[in-house]
Write a structure and sequence with these properties.
Blueprint lengths: L1 H19 L29 H14 L1 H4 L15 H4 L7 H5 L4 E3 L4 E3 L1 H12 L10 H13 L26 H11 L1 H4 L6 E3 L2 E4 L17 H11 L10 H12 L8
Antiparallel strand pairs: 1-2, 3-4
Helix pairs in contact: 2-7, 6-7, 8-11, 10-11
Bound molecules: heme C (2 copies).
């Protein structure tokens, strides 16, 4: 089943990338394999037995969140929509960079947060849903998956590629009108002119970037600076770091000026 979904998504991606560029599929490979970043353990090293089962369950929830954690999801996104390559890609808040830094203090809620708290926050705001209870199987599985992904990483260290980047302040105020042009030229093919995304066989192939089925106004990406940093390093998909900083700021201002669910 995972196989089939990935296959369908792959096909759509190949189509879209083919239209966008004349480049080869190889360019769709993730750049985090290079030695600059921590290498998480390969997929096929997840052990058999109860621990491995929990890790695999976490991965399924991460990539097919609606299907495997549906009571807690209120939109068409998955965890992977923002934490790319199943939570592995540098600068899209990879799980290997996150696990080793928790518990940690967050200004957002002025207290020390466990990883469980942090994940529940993403359910509430980024997934516009109901956070699963901290002791639920859903949270246990996601924590196990994060733990496994950070195997071998130094605890307590801010690894290169963790989190998302903070772009320098823009030269001119981010402008949604310029951003709309960037969006039409570089993003709409996959995310739709109206930000609605694209589905294939009832499953999200390209996630909505605004509107009722996207993240809500409490989400990290609702901050223009956070969104600009995400876009700069990760979008257009597989072409990270191809927009200028100003283009990233402008298109972020455009996307965040569009309607989306209120902060709960
Ligand atoms: C709409 C985008 C989006 C979605 C969907 C999303 N997240 Fe996040 N997540 C973020 C952002 C933005 C951050 C903050 C990253 C930063 O500030 O460096 C974050 C942070 C995190 C962190 C902490 C990372 C760190 O380095 O401190 C974890 C763990 C996490 N998310 C897990 C999840 C899980 C699990 C799901 C699915 C249930 C999910 N996220 C869904 C955007 C998203
Ligand atoms: C080739 C197709 C493609 C293009 C072009 C593209 N994206 Fe994406 N984008 C994706 C996919 C696919 C994901 C989710 C990643 C996943 O599920 O693996 C995504 C995720 C996102 C997200 C986080 C999830 C959400 O729905 O909010 C944002 C924001 C985003 N893209 C913005 C942009 C912007 C801005 C551009 C143009 C500069 C762009 N994208 C261009 C395919 C694309």
């Amino acid at each position: 089943m995972i196989q089939r979904t990935l296959f369908q998504k792959g096909l759509l991606l190949i189509l879209a990338l083919g239209l966008l560029t004349s480049g080869s599929i190889a360019s769709a490979e993730s750049p985090e394999g290079t030695s600059r970043f921590f290498s998480p353990p390969p997929e096929d090293s997840i052990p058999s037995g109860p621990f491995g089962d929990l890790v695999r369950k976490g991965e399924r929830i991460f990539t097919q969140t609606r299907k495997y954690a549906h009571p807690y999801v209120g939109n068409d996104l998955t965890c992977e929509s923002c934490h790319l390559n199943r939570g592995r890609k540098a600068y899209s808040a990879p799980l290997w960079g996150a696990y080793v830094l928790y518990p940690r203090y967050r200004k957002k809620n002025h207290r020390v947060n466990t990883l469980e708290d942090r994940i529940r926050g993403c359910f509430r705001f980024s997934m516009n849903g109901m956070p699963p209870p901290s002791d639920s199987e859903t949270i246990k599985a996601l924590v196990a998956y994060s733990f496994w992904m950070s195997r071998g990483a130094p605890v307590g260290e801010k690894l290169t590629g963790r989190g998302m980047i903070n772009l320098e302040s823009p030269k001119r105020t981010p402008d949604p009108f310029s951003g709309k042009k960037v969006y039409a030229a570089r993003c709409a093919l996959c995310h739709g002119l109206h930000g609605q995304g694209r589905k294939s066989h009832g499953e999200t192939a390209f996630p909505p970037v605004w509107g009722a089925r996207s993240f809500n106004q409490g989400a990290g990406l609702f901050k223009v600076s956070k969104l600009a940093g995400f876009i700069k390093m990760n979008m257009p998909l597989s072409k990270g770091d191809s927009l200028t900083d100003q283009e990233a700021w402008d298109v972020a201002a455009y996307i965040d000026s569009q309607p989306r669910p209120k902060k709960p």
